[in-house]
Amino acid sequence: MQMSYAIRCAFYQLLLAALMLVAMLQLLYLSLLSGMHGQEEQDQYFEFFPPSPRSVDQVKAQLRTALASGGVLDASGDYRVYRGLLKTTMDPNDVILATHASVDNLLHLSGLLERWEGPLSVSVFAATKEEAQLATVLTYALSSHCPDMRARVAMHLVCPSRYEAAVPDPREPGEFALLRSCQEVFDKLARVAQPGINYALGTNVSYPNNLLRNLAREGANYALVIDVDMVPSEGLWRGLREMLDQSKQWAGTALVVPAFEIRRARRMPANKNELLQLYQVGEVRPFYYGLCTPCQAPTNYSRWVNLPEETLLRPAYVVPWQDPWEPFYVAGGKVPTFDERFRQYGFNRISQACELHVAGFDFEVLNEGFLVHKGFKEALKFHPQKEAENQHNKILYRQFKQELKAKYPDSSRHC
Fold this sequence. Notes:
alpha/beta, 14 strands, 2 domains, ten-stranded mixed beta sheet
C-alpha cells in the first residue's frame, strides 16, 4: 500500500512538472511572438491613441516660457502674438481642428473636445489688458485640470500690440484657484463670460480673424479650419485619418465638409441620420441660409442630403468653385494662407477660398461628415464703424482678386 501511494505521488509530481514545462514553453513562445509583432501593434495603437500627456508642471513651465518671451508683433504691427501657451505633440500626417475665439467664447471648446478625437489648435484674441490676463489665468486653470487639454490642444494668444500678457501669479487666478476639475473650470467660465459674436467686441479694436486662423493652422499639414461655435459630426476625425492614410491622391484637393446651422443648440446631431431628421422638420438648415445663401449654395445641399447611406467617409462629388463660395474644407500641401489684411467681418474666408481655386485646388464634397453651427445665422446689424470696415473689406476684395492675377500668372482660373 505504501509503495502504491509513493508511486502515485511520484506520478503526480512528474505530471505537474510536465504541465509547468508546457506552460513555460507557451509563455516563451508568446514572448517571442510579441517581440516580432509588438512594434507593429504599438504603431497601430498610437496611430489613433496618442501617448500619455505631459505632466501639469511641464505644461505650466511652457506657459510661463511663452509669456515671458513678450510675444512678437504681427506683420501689421497692430497685434502681439504669443505662440504655444499650450503645445501638443502632433503626427505630421494628422488632421488638426483649427479654430479661433475671443476669450468669452472659449466655453465652446468643451464641446469641441468631446466631438473631435484628434488634436485641436486654438487662437485666442484678447481685446483688452484685462482679457489678456483672464486668458492666461484660464489657460493656467485648463492645463491644470483638463487632461485632454494637456494631451490634445495647442493654444495661442493674440492681443493689441500696446498690451503684454503677464505670467499668472499663483495668487492671481482668484476664484479659478479654488476649482478642482475640468468641468468646474468650464462652468466658472460660463458664469463670468459674456459669449457673443467674435467681431462684436464692444471696443475699437478689430477682430483679426485671418491672423488667428493662420496662427491656429500654422505648421499643420492637414487642417480643418472652423469657427469655435461649430461642432463636427461624430467620428469625423477618425474617418478623415483613415481616408487620408489609405491614399496619397488628395494633394491639390480641398475636401469640403458641408456646414449646417441648428435652431436650438441643445440637440446637436451626431450622425447624418440624426441631421437629416432635424433637416426635414426645419430645425436644421444650410449654413448662412438667412444671411448669405450664395456663400454656401455651391455645396449643393439637395444633392448631399439625397446621397445613399454609406459607412466609410469619402468624396462624393466634385464642385467647381464659384464666387462667393466659402466652404469649410480639409486640404494638405501648399495651402494658401488667409490674407491678414481682412479683419472683422466680410470677405475674409471668401478671399482665401478664391485663392485656393486660382492656385489649382479642386473641391470635392464629402459624403457623410458635416459641421453644425450653434444657432441660426440672421442678418447682421453693425454700428457705423463696423459697417465702414465691412465696406473696406469689400473694396479690398476687389483689389485682392486683381493681385491674384499677378501672383499666379500661369493660372487659367480666376475669381
